[in-house]
Design a protein that fits this description.
Layout: H1 3-10, E1 20-25, E2 27-28, E3 38-39, H2 41-53, E4 58-60, H3 63-70, E5 83-91, H4 95-107, E6 112-115, H5 141-149, E7 153-156, H6 169-187, E8 193-195, H7 203-211, E9 216-218, E10 237-238, H8 245-252
Helix pairs in contact: 2-4, 6-7
């Protein structure tokens, strides 16, 4: 990078998209071997510091504000500057509570965690994490309720995280509806956000999500979100364990500028 460009970036003289960027994380953990689904807490802390330090360019928002913005009749030329950021976590791992939440609290950032409902408080572990030395790998009810009181929102990620395109539609509907019920009862709040496991869905699945009473759904399609777009196909940008700080900055500044 040229010295002038680097100085400009340090001063905050860089351009960002004028929409909503939804960041996708899974695990925040320093006890697991490096993996694209595992971000080290130090990396995560540095990323959150960056968003906090450059408040003129970025504003971290909650899901309610995101929905209000996407459902509005604003345009990208409405005079607003900077990028709105929504932070999300998939699956509901316990390390979201142990490592991510303290960092989010430090910067007073809201976030959304999509829970795989059947695994809440269980001793189930995915195959690649079975060698982990601790017994419980997922959030339990007490941790979730504590986080709700602290401003964290929760959405549904089905009951068992299946490939929805590979099972009958009646099973898809059951996975979606039951997860909504479990998360709503656990948080004592209506669960309005859904996240497609593996980012897999089709028009029939989208209709089932709507029929089940969700107000929005999140995909894994990368990009920036703008008012008027389909809120049942919200785009997200993965933050991966192998991302260095430069690649993180690139993803939320220059990479998707051309999409508007």
């Amino acid at each position: 990078m040229g010295i002038i460009r680097k100085i400009n970036q340090l001063l905050g003289n860089f351009v960002t998209p004028k929409g909503v960027i939804v960041l996708t994380y899974h695990r925040i953990n320093d006890k697991i071997a490096n993996d694209n689904l595992v971000v080290h807490p130090k990396k995560f802390s540095k990323q959150m510091f960056f968003l906090s330090f450059y408040r003129r360019q970025f504003r971290v928002i909650g899901i309610e504000e995101m929905m209000e913005y996407l459902s509005s009749e604003r345009t990208i030329d409405s005079g607003e500057t900077g990028t709105k950021i929504l932070i999300t976590f998939d699956d509901g791992y316990r390390d979201n509570y142990l490592y991510a939440w303290p960092i989010l609290k430090r910067y007073r950032f809201p976030a959304v965690i999509f829970l795989t409902a059947k695994y809440i408080g269980s001793e189930y572990k995915k195959e690649r994490f079975k060698s982990l030395p601790w017994r419980r790998d997922y959030l339990n009810r007490e941790e979730i309720r504590e986080m709700v009181k602290g401003g964290i929102s929760f959405g549904a990620h089905t009951m068992t995280h299946p490939h929805l395109l590979q099972i009958p539609l009646e099973e898809v509907e059951k996975e979606i509806k039951e997860s909504k019920t479990v998360v709503s009862e656990l948080t004592s709040k209506p669960t309005e956000a859904f996240c497609y496991p593996y980012g897999e869905y089709n028009t029939s699945i989208v209709e089932l999500v709507k029929k089940s009473g969700f107000k929005c759904a999140f995909s894994v399609t990368p990009g920036v979100n703008y008012p008027g777009e389909d809120v049942f196909q919200i785009k997200r940008i993965d933050v991966l364990g192998h991302d260095n700080f430069s690649s993180f900055k690139y993803k939320i500044t220059e990479k998707y500028i051309s999409t508007f």
